[in-house]
Design brief:
three-stranded antiparallel sheet; 7% helix; disordered N terminus
C-alpha cells in the first residue's frame, strides 16, 4: 500500500501543472525569436547597415569644410573697387583702362568714365587704376596722400613715394603691411583699399 501511494505521488509530479519540465519562453529574450534591428541580422540603416550617413562616414565631404572648396578670400566685400585687370569701378559704371579714366569731381560730386587724359581742372581727379592689377611692368597703383593732392587721382607708378599704395587684398601690399578698407578725404570717390603698416587707414583716409 505504501509503495502504491509513493507511485501515485510521483506520477502527479511528473504530469501536473507548471512542473512538467516545459517553460514558456519570452519572445525576443530567450525564445530564439530575435528582435529586428538588434539580433535578427537585420541591420539598422545608418548604424550597422553599411549605409553611411552623408557628410559623416559616407565619403561625401561637407562643402567649405573638407570638400576642397576654398573659402572666400580676404578681399573686403565693402570695397567699391574692381579686382578685374584693366577695369576701374566708377560709381555705377566700369571704366576700361588705360583707354578710359574714371573722372571724379567734388563740386558737383560725381563719377563718370571719360577718355584718358580728359579729366583735369578744378576739383576733378582721374582714376587710372584701383589696384596693381590695372598696372603693367611691375608698377603699383598709387592714391593721393590727402586733401592737398586729391586732384592727382590714382596713377600707376614704380613707387608711390609719399602717396599711398592701393590694394585689393593684403597680398598686394609690401611685407609688414595689410590692406585696409578706407574712404577718401571729403568722401571723394568710393570705398578703396590702401596698404598700411598700422592697424588703420593712412593719412586723412577714414577706416571702415
Amino acid at each position: 500500500m505504501n509503495k502504491l501511494l509513493v507511485l501515485v505521488v510521483l506520477a502527479s509530479i511528473a504530469c501536473g501543472g507548471d512542473d512538467d519540465g516545459r517553460t514558456t519562453p519570452t519572445p525576443g529574450v530567450d525564445s530564439g525569436t530575435p528582435m529586428p534591428g538588434v539580433d535578427s541580422g537585420t541591420p539598422m540603416p545608418g548604424v550597422d547597415s553599411g549605409t553611411p550617413m552623408p557628410g559623416v562616414d559616407s565619403g561625401t565631404p561637407m562643402p567649405g569644410v573638407d570638400s576642397g572648396t576654398p573659402m572666400t578670400g580676404d578681399r573686403d566685400p565693402r570695397l567699391q573697387t574692381n579686382p578685374a585687370a584693366g577695369q576701374v569701378s566708377c560709381g555705377t559704371m566700369t571704366c576700361n583702362v588705360p583707354s578710359q579714366t574714371c573722372c571724379t569731381t567734388l563740386f558737383p560730386q560725381g563719377q563718370t568714365c571719360q577718355a584718358a587724359g580728359s579729366c583735369s581742372g578744378g576739383t576733378s581727379a582721374p582714376g587710372n587704376c584701383d589696384g596693381p592689377e590695372d598696372c603693367m611692368g611691375g608698377q603699383i597703383c598709387c592714391a593721393p596722400s590727402g586733401f592737398s593732392d586729391l586732384t592727382s587721382g590714382t596713377t600707376c607708378e614704380a613707387s608711390c613715394g609719399t602717396r599711398f599704395q592701393m590694394c585689393q587684398t593684403s597680398a598686394d601690399c609690401p611685407g609688414g603691411q595689410t590692406c585696409h578698407t578706407c574712404t577718401p578725404p571729403m568722401g571723394m570717390g568710393g570705398v578703396v583699399g590702401l596698404c598700411n603698416a598700422g592697424d588703420s587707414c593712412p593719412g586723412g583716409y577714414t577706416t571702415l
